[in-house]
Amino acid sequence: MRRASEAGGLHRRRLERLRRAMRRCSADAFVAGRELCAYLTGFESPVVVVSQESLSLPPLNVPQLASALRELGRVAVFADGSFPGYLLEHLQGAEVSTELGRELASELMLRKERGELARVEEAGRLAAEAWELVPAKPKGRELKWLRAALTCHLLREGAELAEVEVESCRQGKPPFSVHLSVRCRGYWAEMCRVTEEVELAEAYLQARSRAVEALSPGEELVRAEGSALGELQRRLGWEWECTGSFVHGIGVLREEAPMIQADPRHAKLRLPRSASLAVGHAVLVSRGLRLRVEDTLVVRGRHLRTVTA
């Protein structure tokens, strides 16, 4: 496999953290796709292979790469959406663990440096500014062109990538939810709002506020989930259904550690003093309405700050 030179500064520190984690769990190599390659090295490549001795960005010659990985020993694979899944099919018989790969990636991305948090904050600022352009009650031609108009605005203002979803909360009728996903300098922020004030949205906002109040550094993340669900129970009784998690990590990936629903073990994770989170990701359904109200927060020391307010 072709070796890549070790990147400098921020990327070198990430590789050092990854290798320390690999030693603790006796992993001989870590393999990931395009997203984690950029995160670890600053370069674009379909696959990155990290061992204690080397860093490789091999060409995607699947049989040759699979043969080389079999010789490395215990291999941790982070099989996210950018990972070429067909490569796993060629690794049958090798000592491969996708679970270990997910654990290593989670540990790597949970804690962020100041520069990383600043990029999440910048993406959040762009999302909040775009929301100010949303009409109070969009309809007709406004609604038809809203998605394109917001996407163009975000890209003009410096977003690297922008995705806008506009959905009806009531089977084609108002109110509408507007979901903004913005990536700036490699880091994501998300926010979701409802175009009109409705009782259910207020209940959701109160539940989300309870979740944020429970999110203090050092506390287990499951407390935030429990606080939000308890508030919904108090305000709505039994006439509601909630799918998804109220809290998940965001940064390099739109959904990253902690991911309580995807990995229940993350519920016991304690919130570090340098993290970025999306709060309000769960979808709430009640009385014919379907909505969510989401924001991105960063944790700096003991303080939590909403960057999409």
**What's the N-to-C terminus distance?**
47 Å
Briefly note the structural class of the backbone.
Answer: alpha+beta
CATH topology of the largest domain: Creatine Amidinohydrolase
Would you list the SSEs in sequence order as H and E? HEHEEHEHEHHHEEEHHEEEEEEEE
Q: Quick check: average pLDDT?
A: 86
**Beta strand count:** 16
Looking at this protein, list some descriptive labels:
about 300 residues, alpha+beta, Creatine Amidinohydrolase, Chain A, domain 1, five-stranded mixed beta sheet, 9 helices, disordered N terminus
Can you describe this structure in just a few lines?
The chain has 2 domains: about 10-110, Creatine Amidinohydrolase, Chain A, domain 1 (3-Layer(aba) Sandwich); about 115-305, Creatine Amidinohydrolase. By secondary structure, the protein is an alpha+beta fold.
